[in-house]
Structures are given as C-alpha cells and as structure tokens.
Amino acid sequence: MTDTAPVVIVGGGHNGLVCAAYLARAGRRVIVLEAADQVGGAAVTREFAPGFRVSSGAHLLYALDPVVVRDLKLASHGLGFARSGLCTVSLGAGEPLVLNGTEVLAGEVSAADRAAFGEYVARQRRFGALLARQRGRIPARLGAGFSVVRLFALRANNRTTENPAPMLLDLLRLGRADVRELLRTGTMPIFDLLDDRLANPQLKGALALDGVLGAKLGPRSGQSFFTSLQRAGAYALPRGGMGTVTGALAVAARAAGADIRVSSPVARFAVRGDRVAGVVLESGEEIAASAVVSNADPKTTFLQLLGARHLDAEFARRLLNFRSLGCAAKLHLALDALPDFRGVPADRVGERLIVAPDLAYVESAFNPAKYREFSPAPVLEITIPSLHDPGLAPRGKHVLSAVVQYAPYDLAAGWESGRHALEKATLDVLARYAPAIRERVIAAQLLTPVDLEREFRITGGHWHHGELALDQYMMLRPVPGAARYAAPIGGLFLCGAGSHPGGGVMGSAGRNAARVVLGEVRG
Ligand SMILES: Cc1cc2nc3c(=O)[nH]c(=O)nc-3n(C[C@H](O)[C@H](O)[C@H](O)COP(=O)(O)OP(=O)(O)OC[C@H]3O[C@@H](n4cnc5c(N)ncnc54)[C@H](O)[C@@H]3O)c2cc1C
User: Fold this and answer.
1) Contact (CB, 8 A) for 216 and 227
2) pTM of the entire structure?
3) What is the mean pLDDT of the segment spanning 357-373?
4) Please, what CATH class does the domain formed by 7-43+63-79+241-322+460-517 belong to?
5) CB 352 within 8 A of CB 88
6) What is the whole-number distance in angstroms between the Cα of residue 447 and the centre of ligand 1?
7) Which residue among 231, 505, 511 is best mutated to probe the pocket of ligand 1, counting the most ligand atoms within 8 A of its Cβ?
8) For the chain, which residues make up each domain, given as ranges?
C-alpha cells in the first residue's frame, strides 16, 4: 500500500472527526466512514418526537479539550453555547441544595460543611487538573530499560512522550501533602471520603453522584473517588445540543479537505499479509488505505472488524476481559409546559438538576445492578435545555433529558419487559420532585444500554466504550499492547473513547491518535 492511499477513519463520532480534521490539516487524504445517517456518534442532537430535539447521548459539555477548540476553530465553524457555568441543584426532601462548583449557594448547610465542601472541591480540582493534563499526552511506554536516570535524560532530549517523566513532574508539582492525599484517596470509595469530611447528607449524595455517573460503581465501590476526578469541570449546554459540537467538527474536517461519508457501515478490515490495508464496507465496496483509524469501540474494532484470528491469544483474552457493559440509560421527555419542581425557584430549573439525595439512596440504587436488575428508585442527572435554547422544542414547550442510573446492559429479565418498568420507575422518582410532571408529558423516549448499543454501535452500550477505572486507564487502556493508539497489527490505529483518556466529549483521543498516525509520536 502506498502513502498516496487515503487514511480511512471508521466512525464519525467526535473523536473520529477530530482525528480526521488534524490529519487533513497535515495534508493527508482522509475518508471518514460513518455507519449512521449523521455524524456525531453518542454526541448528537436528534428529534425524538415531532418538533422536539434533544442531545440523544451526551447532554452536558464539561471536558472538551480547549486545544481542539482553538486549533480547529470550532467557534467559527458553528460551535456556540446556550448556557455555560451551570450550577448543580440537588433535589431532596427539603430545600434544594445549590452548588456552583466551588461554593454552596443555597441550602441548609452548616458553616463547617460549607468550609469542608470548599476544601474538598478545591483539592478535587487540583487532582482533576492533573488528570486533565494527561489527556493530551500519549500514555508512557513502561518497557524494558525504564529507569529514573533514563527517564530524565529522555526528558532533557524532549522525547517526553516516550516516558512518564511529564506525569511524574506533574505529580511532584502537586506538593507533598497533595501527593500523599492522592495516593491515599485514589482508590478509595467516595463514600468513605465524603463521610469523613462532611455531615450534610444531601451534600454527600450530590458529590457522590460525580463518582458513579456513567460507571458501574456505587459510592461504596473502590475507585469511585477517582471517577469523580474526571468530571471536575464546568458544565455547559451547546446551542442546538451536542450535535452542534460534532457538526462544527465535521465542518472543520471538511474545510481541511476530509471526505466524510455517512450511511457507510464498515463490515471488516482488509488484511494483506501482516497489515491492515483497507476496509470493506457492508455494501461490498473495498477502499484501500495507507492507515485505518478506528473510532469504533475496542471490542468492535478487534473482535468484529479485524477478527480474533489476527490477534495474539493473550491480547484477545485481555480484550474479552475489558469491562464494557453499560449501566446507564437515557430518558427524554417532550413536555407541553414546564412543570414546577418543588422548592426550586424558577430561575434555577434550567440548571443541572440531580436526584441523589444522600449516600444511602445512591448506594441502594446501585445494589440491584449487581444482580442484573435495574434500580426501582434511580439516581438522575436532569437537564431542561429548551429553557436556554428554545429552538429545541415548539414554542412554549420543553424537552427534558435525564441520565438514568442504574440500568445494567445485561438485565436478567431482558429489556423488552424491563423498559416500561424502568420508565415508570423514573417518572415516579421525577414526580416526587415535580408532582405534575406526568400530566405534562406529550411523548417519552427511554434509551436502555441495549438501545444505546444499537443506536450508537457501542458494544455493551457503555458511554466510555469501557469502564474508566485505574486498571483500564492510561497505559492500560483499552489493554496493554494497544494503549498508544497503534494496534498490535500494522496499519491499524484506535482513536475512540476506548483509548486514553476515555469517554466524555473531549476530543483528546482523536487528537492524540492523529499525532501517532502522523508519526509525530511513536505508537
Ligand atoms: C447516555 C449517555 C450519556 C452521556 N452523557 C455525557 C455527558 O453528559 N457529557 C459527556 O461529555 N459525555 C457523555 N457521554 C459520553 C460521550 O457521549 C462518549 O464518551 C463520546 O461520545 C464517545 O465519543 P467517540 O467519538 O469516542 O465514540 P462514539 O461517539 O461512540 O462514536 C463512534 C462512531 O463510530 C461509528 N461506528 C461504529 N462501528 C462502525 C462501523 N462498523 N462502520 C462505520 N462506523 C462505525 C458509530 O456509529 C459512531 O458514530 C454520554 C454517553 C451516553 C451514551
């Protein structure tokens, strides 16, 4: 295969588009093949009832890489915001708690808890910033010949992506007290940490949510504090929903010369000798490629599109053990008017509303998931984006979007029967805080993890393409042997959420992968 053949990107999710834009800007010929009839993957805006549009998967932006926004000039390609800096409003039995990320703005919280909250979030932000700095780096290679002397010699030669020196320097910059605290808390259940620092049950419940959302973890699970560090950012609503982000990325990629084709599902990779040399579409068309970059999840990429026969047995075993069963569902409601949320002032209803009233509630909601059952009283993260972005719904009407946790992919009774019961349970919980909500509902759509798998072609319907835990993080993501974007077979690269730094609408995996494909960094 010659280098004049295009780079083919399988999947037009946000990471595939970011990768395409960077490669095209560097002068590569790029073809993006997206199976769905629109680009965006799990970051799209769709109509779910006549006149009602919603962000179908991701609904809040909190981690988009500012380097990607700047490099790809997303603002001039259509990215705008309906609202930035959303507060979190925790719904409970009494007065709602309002948090703005650094302070308690409203709620019956003692002075001691307000101070402890300030310290907790400040430290969480410092740790979160440390992780955020790693997002734009290719995970270090920990191989033979690793030594501290070599590590700093390489740093001096500016070969920083070959080794963990930058990460270690970041750690040292944290200072002794924070490093000790990070080591102590990094694998801790968020439950213990919050219980140790705070007294207010509602405050603890609200903070615990960040440690479990999108994950198959409860507050008492190890690593739930680590998970919370991934969300230490400010929440924003893109104008027009998440589809505006991926729409702007597609414009940027096309402006740089990328050819983006929708409704083009890839059936398999074409392997010639010991290399991936192109792709074969479901239509039968074959496209030769100088490199194939997969935005699909790791199991789809290796087990379905490549085929286990091209993999080393140990690598295939690791992939099979990559934990990738989703545990969150998504509910969309078309509302004929805005319902009252008890105790929530009108100017706060458009914030990020959560139902996680205390630690016990969240842990109890998780318990059934361990036994392949959904929660009868789920934890919720709710947005009503039409309050800031009226174009999403007909005049005077609204859309409500809620992440519903916990809903295990492998529900014992199956989702055919489970779907209606979970929808009812979710509406029951919503009605505790917005008693008239049922009368306001014109149409509802519940996407279970099985629906998410089908809609977005994500094996297991997991929003990170796989659990984001320490054993599946950085040089271990998705599995050793493919953690630096290059696959263990020539000509194939990964660029999706199953790679470092994981899921969430960031674009970092796409940008990092492009650097490896371009040879700026060894994969
Ligand atoms: C319910 C839910 C809620 C979420 N909430 C948030 C949130 O609020 N904020 C946030 O930041 N993140 C959120 N996320 C996570 C976020 O949406 C994902 O992590 C992110 O979109 C992953 O992007 P990606 O480009 O890596 O992969 P994807 O978006 O999964 O894109 C992969 C693309 O590859 C395509 N593809 C797969 N196989 C093939 C094939 N054979 N041929 C051609 N194309 C193929 C797919 O169709 C898809 O378009 C949420 C996710 C879900 C599901």
Assistant:
1) no
2) 0.95
3) 97
4) alpha beta
5) yes
6) 14
7) 505
8) 7-43+63-79+241-322+460-517
